[in-house]
Amino acid sequence: MMFFLFLAFVIFQRVCELAIAKRNEKWMKEQGGVEFGKTHYIFIVIVHVLFFISLCLEVLVQGKEISSYWPALVSLFLVTQIGRIWALSSLGKYWNTKIIVVPQAAVIKKGPYKFLKHPNYLIVTLEFLVIPLLFQAYGTLIAFSLLNALILMIRIPAEERALCNHTKYNEVFHKTSRFLPLPFMKKM
Predict the structure, then answer these.
(1) How many other β-carbons are positioned within 10 Å of the β-carbon of residue 162?
(2) I need a surface site. Which of 8, 81, 152, 163 has the fewest CB within 10 A?
(3) Transmembrane ranges (predicted)?
(4) Could you give the number of structural domains in the chain?
(5) Which helix (H) or strand (E) holds 99?
(6) Which of the four pLDDT bands, split at 50, 70 and 90, describes residue 51?
(7) Domain of 67?
């Protein structure tokens, strides 16, 4: 029962985010926004959909139970959700699941973006670890952590290229780390 409630919450959240992304996409394109990375976007969608399918199959078919460490894992999951809301609300209408750049738009460096270039990707990476750990779905954890890393190796450079070419992104973020807010990690 806990698994189905948790899964329903996460899927509901993702559907809401897709609705927000669609609304933001419409607004950005009305402002002259241009989409980049269309060829890899479908793979991001596929990885995320397959993640939930794999999680369901592993938990239900193999009869996985909730981890005995569930209080710590749920707490970590809640922290990621706070981070997710902080990251999305910091970008406001500029947040999207796609790479859409409004040429010459002001680069946003507030909220978690004061410390990291890509806080939302860090949050997704943590979710791909925490959610399977919560239900002891180790196969899903390994497979989708690797697939997520692979897709981010394509996604992040594409996003940064688009932002550098059409905004002052490089000027604003030239001393900001991609994922770790540590002084010695600058210029990653």
Answers:
(1) 19
(2) 8
(3) 42-61, 68-87, 121-151
(4) 1
(5) strand 99-101
(6) very high
(7) 35-181
